[in-house]
Amino acid sequence: MEIILKQGRLIFAIAIFALGVEHLICAHLGQAALPGEMVIPVIPFVPAIPVLAYLTGLVLIATSVCIAANMRARLAAILLGMLFLLCVVFLSVPRVAASPLSVSVRTGFFEALAIGSAALTLAGTMPEEPYLLRWHRVVSPLIKSGRFLFAASSIVFGIDHFLVLDVIASLVPGWIPGAMFWAYFTGAGFIAAGITVATKWMVRWGAGFLGLMFLLWFLLLHAPRVLSAARFHNPNEWSSAFIALAICGGAWIQALPQRSQQQGGSPNT
Fold first, then answer.
1. How many structural domains comprise the chain?
2. Helix (H) or strand (E) holding 38
3. 197/147 Cα distance (integer angstroms)
């Protein structure tokens, strides 16, 4: 199981890279998020301003390459996490405030939060970098918050599943029997996984299960949809697939041991 969980970092980096590329491709393709608001159809759903979309895409690509290649990876993960948290605060919060009962708007909020918090947790699994020591008092609380923000996102995903069971069941491929059972099962799985991540009780099993669930969704649900002729050119389908892959990697990252926040510290759980 340890070998599987360690792939979370690479899977996460691949998904972030793909989202970065999608930003570059969709820089001139806006869609309505709320009435009167146009956004790029790629998480974190920045305003439909081409320059901003290009900049965001380049940042996502650069940080993902650094994480995958282990080049200033801790700094890259921190910057990536901060980017997503800033987008959550300044872009997603106003949308949720404008449509507090919208499950889709709330899902976008917590998807961005889950990805950003996974990046912060990832930073905590990496060795301390000397040039970051002066920022220890700022960086350390951010990194520690990652686990709880990710757990909260997972629990909200589970609650929202129970609010739209029919919609979730309709997404289950027709060749898989018991669609409504899987809708209930995944909702409960989200909540259980969130609790294990927050408490660190059986976290490897809870986070491992959550990552596996997202990986199966990516392979069985999203991949067939994006590869179908009818949906191949729909950026929302690609975004959903890459988001699922990113949260898969992010879930497995939650199960990795954290390092001491002191230079040269040893890993701890």
1. 1
2. strand 37-39
3. 7
Q: Is the peptide bond before 130 cis (omega within 30 degrees of 0)?
A: no
Residue-wise pLDDT tens digits, 198-243: 999 999 999 999 999 999 999 999 998 888 866 778 899 999 999 9
CA-based nearest residue to 68, from 14, 5, 122: 14
Nearest-10 Cα torsion for 254, 78, 150, 87: -160
Tokens encoding 245: 């892959």
Q: Is the Cβ–Cβ distance between 252 and 237 less than 8 Å?
A: no
- Give the chain's length: 269
Collapse the DSSP code of 19 into the 3-class scheme (helix H, G, I; strand E, B; otherwise coil) and give the result: helix
> Tokens 């919609």 correspond to what residue?
167
What is the per-residue pLDDT across 65-104, written as a single tens digit (0 to 9) for each?
Answer: 999 999 999 999 999 999 999 999 999 999 999 988 889 9
Q: Which amino acid is at 200?
A: K
Highest mean pLDDT among 29-43, 114-128, 180-194: 180-194
Q: Give pLDDT, residue 68.
A: 95
Helix (H) or strand (E) holding 173: none
Contacts of residue 189, Cβ cutoff 8 Å, sequence gap at least 6: 158, 209, 210, 213
pLDDT given at position 265 = 43
Token look-up 């997202």 returns 214
Show the domain range for 82.
2-268
Torsion 55-9-246-121 (CA) sign: negative
DSSP state of 100: T
Mean predicted lDDT score pLDDT of the chain: 89
Identify the pLDDT of residue 196: 95
